[in-house]
Amino acid sequence: MPNAVPARPAKVPISPPRVSSQSSGRKSATPPRFSVEAERRDSPEPIPSEVASPPKSGLCTVYLPGETLHKFMRIAAVNTERKVETCGLLLGRKTRNTYTVQSLLIPRQTSDENSCTMTNEELVFEFQENRGLLTLGWIHTHPTQSCFMSSLDLHTHSAFQAMLPEAFAIVCAPKSNPSFGIFRLTDPPGLQVIMSCNDQRTFHPHPDKPIYTDADSGHVRMMPELPLEIADLRNEF
Ligand SMILES: [Zn+2]
Ligand SMILES: [Zn+2]
């Protein structure tokens, strides 16, 4: 290996999340250029009070519309058939002690069998700024592989979780059983291990520690009645 240290990892699928809609001087005067599948209903927050208390982990609860997986897999179907990945961002808002996913945003992207790289990120920033939406999680397919977090996924996710401890990653692996998982890095040690890992290879091993864990038995809760808005930036222009 040469001594020069390139920016890592070589393939970064998705940028670190933007956790504030006010944190940038980026101009937002241009009209939105995304298409939105209008499926929002009248009540934005149908959350039963009995499940609204914070979980023991110290993390705020994140409510995820129950139809998220089904809708994403439908959007990803063409790519999945071609055996290439698809990625999306799960955006939402914070209300009191809870986060609620409201939008599934499909960024422009390039992908292959084992990775997915977001492009034209300015369109994502614009979408989020116009609506004041936070990045709460991300979702991607493993068309041919099992349901797990690859080392590339772990590095991608560490940036999200470093910005927002509640951030979660959904992996959809339709050829596998289980066919999906909702994950987060353990903290400690997973987040620290990944953030301090300097391995430059796109895929590489990590120490034999509990690096990541299920989030859906923790702070992420599926809520069947929650609406989900879909925006697909790939359809523009
Ligand atoms: Zn992956
Ligand atoms: Zn690493």
From TrEMBL:
One term under GO cellular component: membrane
Region Disordered: start-end pairs: 1-54
GO biological processes: protein K63-linked deubiquitination; proteolysis
Domain MPN: 62-191
UniProt keyword terms in alphabetical order: Hydrolase, Metal-binding, Metalloprotease, Protease, Ubl conjugation pathway, Zinc
Pfam families reported for this sequence: JAB (PF01398)
Coiled-coil region list: none
Family annotation (CDD domains): MPN_AMSH_like (cd08066)
Claim: Metal-binding is one of the keywords in the record: yes
Sequence ranges of Polar residues compositional bias: 18-27
Zinc listed as a keyword: yes
Protein name: MPN domain-containing protein
